[in-house]
Amino acid sequence: MTVHRSPGFYNAQLGGARKKIELWLDKDRDKPVSIVLWGVGDHGGGPSRRDLADLAELIKANPAVVHSTPEAYFKELRESGMALPRVKYPLNPWAVGCYTSQIRIKQKHRRLENEIFMLEKMAAAAALQGLMDYPREAIHEALRDLMTSEFHDILPGSSIQPVEDAALRLLDHGLEIVSRLKARAFFTLAGGQPKAAEGEIPILIYNPHPYPVTGVFECEFQLADQNWQDGKVTVPLVHQDGRPIPCQLEKEVSNLNLDWRKREVFRATIAPGQMTRFDCKLELRDKAPLPAVQPEDGVFHFKTDDLEAAISTRTGLMDKYAVGGFDFLKAGALQPLVIDDDEDPWGMRVRAYRDVAGGFGLMSPEKGTAFSGVRHGVIPSVRVIEDGPVRTVVQVVLAWGDSFICQTYKLPKQGAEVEVQVRVHWNEKNRMLKLAVPTTLEGGEYLGQVAYGREAFPADGNEMVGQQWLAVTGGGKALTVINDGTYGSDCKDGELRLSLLRSPAYSGHPIGQRPVMPQDRYSPRIDQGERLYHFWINGGDAEERLATVDREALARNQRPFALSFFPPGTGAAPHPAAVVDDASVLLTAFKQSEQGGRYIIRLFEPTGQTRRTTLEIPAADVRREVALGKFEIKTLRLDPAKGTLEEVTLLE
Questions:
Q1: Can you tell me whether residue 49 is helix, strand or coil?
Q2: Residues 382, 394: contact at Cβ < 8 Å?
Q3: Do residue 466 and residue 594 come from a single domain?
Q4: Sign of CA dihedral 370, 371, 375, 378
């Protein structure tokens, strides 16, 4: 691919275009073809009458100078035979602060993007089987909200505060559209489910992915009536196909201190491309005591067949994470670090954020109790808040300066994937917050997901940008970290640091040695207040980890839709939308074509290996073997009327 990167600024001051071009001519006179950008103002610049008149005189004296277009420039460049340098390294990083600034916009953009993809898959599955009309115009309206938020000072987080407010409102508008349509598609796809048995509560989960998804699922529901008996609690026991599966009751989101609302957590496997049914059978039991797990020698020890972990009661940090007997993390892992920063949201003058001002430390029991809002008694600052057959949940409260963090570890009883939830209350200025993940894989590779691919990043401490997952590998092992809405990170000496937020000025543009901020008043700062993050950490053999992490990341970002719903018992169960038999290939899109009547299916090979997979579309009675090259995107167009599946370009 031939590209051009314009040296210097792309604009010119009013009346300064001729001078800029004359300087350009002196520098580039020996080149057979070159290009210069000019214009007044930001966002590309515009022509002024004064500059156009000046340039008309210049062009008379220099006939080789012409007003032109990028397309004409590249055509003439190719025809000139001019030798061009070959660039084999990433063009990033630049403006590295933009990977993190205004994190709420980035999180909501990620969420809307994935919700649209998921809605398209659900709506296509329903429309393909004649169960509902495909909501084309409504999806396009949500897409317009998404694309508007991608303007170059909105998504990077370099806008003023009113723009941030407008962008969040815009993204919420798109999310509301999608939420309503997803609910409609869900109820449509729930057709054919039998009525619930007397006294049972059904939970339905729709899987948009064309392969089974195994994990921990959560769902809340209301009991038919309130239980006012002191000392008694209603316990739902989850069954799948009549068999009990691991489940536990956890604190519901509401705070109505009554046996009525339930939050059920269970581990299960859901079928590809369709609805999976679970049934909760209710039992009235004596109230269970608080979790009885106790620390030993200042450490909460956790051990299963798959995982060994330890969380210190002295620091609140993870001192051990071992899978298959191999230690992936050093002691003191998952500490939130405070990094020295400045007022510039772009990060124009830096390549790295490595100057540690301090680390969050464990609150005293008294301070932690007050922060937690507890009024009766004093509670420890490291405590087990949930424990059962599915997982143990450990909650930690930390502080630094004027800021606080509630960090939650969710440790599974099966598997090795640990979920870490970080709830930040931030009130610092000119600081950055990172989460430190010090691995034992020193000298290994630092990898990250990029758009339709993966990339080996330099592990030199410079700030990099990745998508849904990062990994550190070495010695045949890999530690992967999935996120649901962060992008910046760095790695050095095996320590991965995840960038959570920054607190520069709104549009704080550095110019020379001038102060960026007014020095005579209070000025609002970016990302003050409460922010929430989720990460999923998993370790294992590198080949297995890197073969499955893309699917795991997609399942975390396009989460199967779980809802407690009492079906009427009418209709027929829909067919699965799509099924693939390969262990790694992703279905990144399944939607109706722009012309209507046909459907677009997009498959992607995410591991850098050539693969063959069988794609089945049961709803259209279509089955086809598909070959994919390394990191290949393959777009297929389904004509259900003809029962045909043909390969088309990305433009469909």
A1: helix
A2: yes
A3: no
A4: negative
Q: Does this model's pTM top 0.85?
A: yes
Domain shared by 336 and 460, yes or no: yes
Adjacent-strand bridge partners of 299: 296, 312
3-state SS, one letter per residue, for 180-216? HHHHHHHHHHCCCCCCCCCCEEEEEEECCCCCCEEEE
Which contiguous run of DSSP H or E holds residue 451?
none
**Average pLDDT of the residues in 509-515:** 92
The tens digit of pLDDT for each residue in 122-151 reads 999 999 999 999 999 999 999 999 999 999
The structural domain count of the chain equals: 3
Contact 561, 206 (CB under 8 A): yes
Cα separation of 450 and 31, whole Å? 35
C-alpha span between 179 and 291 (Å, rounded) = 36
Question: Are the C-beta atoms of 598 and 644 separated by less than 8 Å?
Answer: no
Residues 315 and 402 in one domain: yes
Amino acid at 519: Q
pLDDT of res. 532? 98
311: pLDDT confidence band, cut at 50, 70 and 90?
very high
Q: Which residues contact 605 (CB under 8 A, 6 or more apart)?
A: 584, 585, 611, 628, 629, 630, 631, 632
Least confident of 17-26, 474-483, 547-556: 17-26
Judge whether 42 lies within some domain. yes
Q: Are residues 356 and 438 in the same domain?
A: yes
- Beta-strand relationship, 495-502 and 431-438: antiparallel
Q: Are residues 385 and 457 in the same domain?
A: yes
Name the domain boundary from 47, 80, 113. 80
pLDDT in the model for residue 44: 64
State the CATH number of the domain containing residue 429: 2.70.98.30
Q: Indicate the residue type of 73.
A: Y
d(CA 374, CA 335): 24
